[in-house]
Amino acid sequence: MSFGLPRLLQLASPTLPVGAYTYSQGLEWAVEAGLVRDQVTAGQWIGGLLEEGIGRFEAPLAACLQRAWDAADVGEVERLNAEFLASRESSELRAETVQMGYSLRRLLHDLDDFPVPPALDALPEVAFPTGWALAAAVWEIPLADSLAAYLWSWCENQVMAALKAIPLGQTAGQRALLALGGRIPVVVQLALSLPEAEWSNFAPGLALASSRHETQYSRLFRS
Questions:
Q1: How far apart are CA 10 and CA 7, in angstroms?
Q2: Is the pLDDT score of 1 beyond 80?
Q3: Mean pLDDT in the chain?
């Protein structure tokens, strides 16, 4: 067994200290509004975003970022990082990726024997996918595997948010993850082959939910 698998598990672990568990990406507001109220509607909400939002923009962008780090293409890293930051439709979503990117950059500096390139430190703001892609490139994790782990980590955080906000039981959460995990291979395959001209971040429900969550009266998750 190569060291790639343990490093992949480390990168995808919920113990990664970047604060992902503190965000719901608008899901908490969707619960408040009654749009998400049980295991079925949670699966529809998360699954829809996985396939139509994350899978068609964030995932292919993360894949291109890993390729750019592998090729030491600093200009491409800067371009994609800026593109992702500009794609965040609400101040909440932008603050989330900047905070998580900052935390991941700091973590990589603190890890033993991790060669942080000057290009990462040169970025005024680091989007989370940019730091993730660098770690995957340095640890030589195969692109399809790192992308699957990235999507799994996102799904797991969304399900954990649903468990707290609806709330759902642990068994319901595992059923949801089982169903979502079964959809990830197809999403990965599409993300790896989707031309940039066909990337789409069109998810108005997510944008509205996140915007309204920013002023939601009572919240469990950060805004």
A1: 5
A2: no
A3: 95
Q: What are the two backbone dihedrals, phi and then psi, of residue 105, each rounded to the nearest 5 degrees?
A: -60, -45
Centroid of chain to Cα 105: 15
CA angle (32, 36, 41) in 5-degree steps? 175
Distance CA 28, CA 118 (A): 38
* Nearest residue to 130 (alpha-carbon basis) of 209, 50, 18: 18
Token pair, residue 158, equals 């969304």
**pLDDT by residue (tens digit) across 78-135?**
999 999 999 999 999 999 999 999 999 999 999 999 999 999 999 999 999 999 999 9
Please provide the DSSP assignment of 201-213 as one string. ---HHHHHHHHHH
Residue 99 · residue 126 · CB < 8 Å: no
The residue written with tokens 């998810």 in the block is: 203
Q: Give pLDDT tens digits for 171-197.
A: 999 999 999 999 999 999 999 999 999
Q: Which residue has the tokens 């068609």?
A: 56
**Distances from the Cα of 127 to the Cα of 21, 33, 190, angstroms:** 17, 29, 22
The dihedral of CA 17, 203, 209, 176: what is its sign?
negative
